[in-house]
Specification:
It is a single chain. With about 180 residues, the chain is an alpha+beta fold. It has helices at about 5-55, 60-70, 80-95, 125-140, and strands at about 100-110, 115-125, 145-155, 160-170. It has four helices and four strands, in the order H-H-H-E-E-H-E-E. The protein has a four-stranded antiparallel sheet with strand order 1-2-4-3. It is elongated and about 110 Å long. The chain starts with a helix and ends in a 6-residue tail after the last strand. The model has no long low-confidence stretch (mean pLDDT about 85).
């Protein structure tokens, strides 16, 4: 092989290497990236379709559950809701021997047109009266949830306990039939 033939072969090899490198950067890599992104999008959509089908299959159950939640939520009329909560709290306090010193109500708008009724209760009593009071709340006579509970001993023996209790209730907008 002559020198001219070697030069020609080297030039062809260098040119072929540059063409392959440019082909990789200009064609193969972008196509691979598009392929991968479409593959990820297809995976996401398949999962989304699966979740959608699962929701469709559970539609009757979810609608019944939502109707129960609407029915069990506080009344839409705010004074009626407040009256219901105050009456029930007073009844539970008398039943349990729980000494309520103050009740502070507050209304708060949440996202999605929901209205929350927040109640802060400061009270004291024995451990038994506190547990009876909390048990009455948990019996779901009212749709209230304990947000926070703080207990502080009022005497050295711990027989009198101070309580700072925060409850919340939800008013859901009623669906029009």
């Amino acid at each position: 092989m002559t020198t001219e033939e070697r030069k020609k072969l080297l030039v062809i090899g260098a040119f072929a290497s540059v063409v392959i490198l440019l082909g990789d950067k200009a064609v193969i890599t972008p196509l691979t990236n598009v392929w991968n992104s479409r593959s990820q999008k297809i995976d996401y959509l398949e999962k989304d379709v699966f979740r959608g089908r699962a929701l469709i299959e559970r539609e009757d159950f979810l609608r019944r559950r939502w109707a129960d939640m609407e029915r069990e939520s506080l009344p839409e009329n705010q004074p009626a809701a407040e009256s219901m909560v105050f009456t029930q709290l007073d009844e539970w306090a008398r039943f349990s021997g729980f000494n309520v010193s103050s009740i502070t109500p507050q209304w708060r708008d949440d996202e999605e047109d929901n209205l929350r009724y927040l109640v802060r209760i400061e009270a004291n009593g024995s451990m038994r009266s506190i547990t009876d009071f909390l048990f009455a709340i948990d019996q779901k006579l009212l749709p209230l949830r304990v947000e926070s509970l703080e207990l502080v001993s009022r005497d050295k023996r711990g027989s009198q306990i101070g309580v700072d209790l925060r409850l919340s209730g939800l008013i859901l907008p009623r669906q029009k039939p």
